[in-house]
Amino acid sequence: MRVLAAIALALMAMTSVASAQDATSDFPNRPIKIVVCVPAGGGVDTVARVVAKELQEKLGQPVVVENRAGAAGNIGADFVFHAKPDGYTLLAAQPAPLTVNPLLYKDMAFDPTKFVPVGIMTSAPNVLMVRADFPAKTAQEFLAYAKANPGKINFGSQGIGTTSHLTTMLFQGMTGTSMVHVPFKGTAPALNALIGGYIDMIFMELASANKLAKGGQARILAVATDKRLPSLPDVPTFEEIGVKGFESSTWNAIAAPPGTPPEVIEKLNDAVTDALNSPGAVDLFHKLNLQPEPGSPLQAASFIHAQTALWSDVIVKAHIQPH
């Protein structure tokens, strides 16, 4: 009887393995959901919808985008983290929920390091943008004004711990300036506040900032890159105004729940890579001033790890307390 029981258990295990292999071999065979952890209309949302459209064609299955915003991305990230790890529920996120949020929020029901990165979708350089009627007209004037008026400049962000927030904290630390943080719930409300004059400045990804600058609703004073951008040849880098080594970019990634099979991750990565390289996506990203970032899951994981270390250091040095 013991022998028969052992054989039965072995057969059950073999059946289980075979079933798991079958489940991954025909992936995907039903609709995929991409959960975007920011409100509709932001940079991550725009990119996720472009990629979703291309993925639908590549994979032959419907790809639905669902927005679950709140708590700097934690709400959407938590939902995906606890979803079934089968590749049918994915997270499209900005850096915070995949990197530094554990340092910023006391009660989190997920561990960002356990997500399985599928790939980085796009990146965009950050720029210093001020309201249209701000007194400083150049980057040099802004730096001088900020140093001469500590606590008198209000800066906006998409929320605590977002790239716009941490980039400003990095800027303050490197320049010895002090400004007042006004956090918002997403890109759209932050930019509306800038246009309305409720805040003075914001570090914003070029893709979103350029629209306002071209419309005369705000002004771009400097770019957080190592060299000037071809699309903004007259706008200086921070290096040029004396802030040595100041660089910052915004990126977004697709990740899967912990435990998602490697075979499924590879299939998804192949499809995402094809989507990012498709002529339609490349052309649209170019118009939006976004840089496609196709790469392997391992490269994505390594990049996210490095970004976590960089911005965690900024949080610690700036004494940003969790809430």
Topology overview:
Layout: H1 2-25, E1 32-36, H2 43-59, E2 63-67, H3 74-81, E3 89-93, H4 95-98, H5 101-104, E4 116-131, H6 139-148, E5 154-157, H7 163-175, E6 180-183, H8 187-195, E7 201-205, H9 206-214, E8 218-223, E9 249-256, H10 262-277, H11 279-287, E10 291-292, H12 297-317
Parallel strand pairs: 1-2, 1-3, 5-6, 5-7
Antiparallel strand pairs: 3-9, 4-7, 4-8, 4-9, 4-10
Helix pairs in contact: 2-10, 7-12
Describe this structure in words.
The N and C termini lie far apart (59 Å). The protein folds into two domains: 30-123 and 251-317, D-Maltodextrin-Binding Protein, domain 2; 124-249, Periplasmic binding protein-like II (D-Maltodextrin-Binding Protein, domain 2). Strands 1, 2, 3, 4, 5, 6, 7, 8, 9 and 10 form a ten-stranded mixed β-sheet that branches. The protein is built from twelve helices and ten strands. The longest helix has 24 residues, at 2-25. Helix content is 45%, strand content 19%. It is globular, with a radius of gyration of 22 Å.
Write a short abstract of this structure.
The protein is α/β, with parallel strands linked by helices and 323 residues long.
Supply the number of structural domains: 2
Q: Any idea of the CATH topology of the largest domain?
A: D-Maltodextrin-Binding Protein, domain 2
What is the correct CATH architecture of the largest domain? 3-Layer(aba) Sandwich
**Percent helix range:** 40-55%
Report the count of strand segments: 10
Shape: globular
- Regions with little confidence, pLDDT below 50 for 5+ residues: 16-20
Largest sheet: 10 strands, mixed
Q: Overall mean pLDDT score?
A: 91
> What is the CATH top level name of the largest domain?
Alpha Beta
Structural class: alpha/beta
Fraction in beta strands:
15-25%
- The CATH homologous superfamily name of the largest domain equals Bordetella uptake gene, domain 1
How much is the radius of gyration in Å?
22 Å
Number of helices: 12
Cα distance spanning the termini: 59 Å
The helix-strand sequence is HEHEHEHHEHEHEHEHEEHHEH
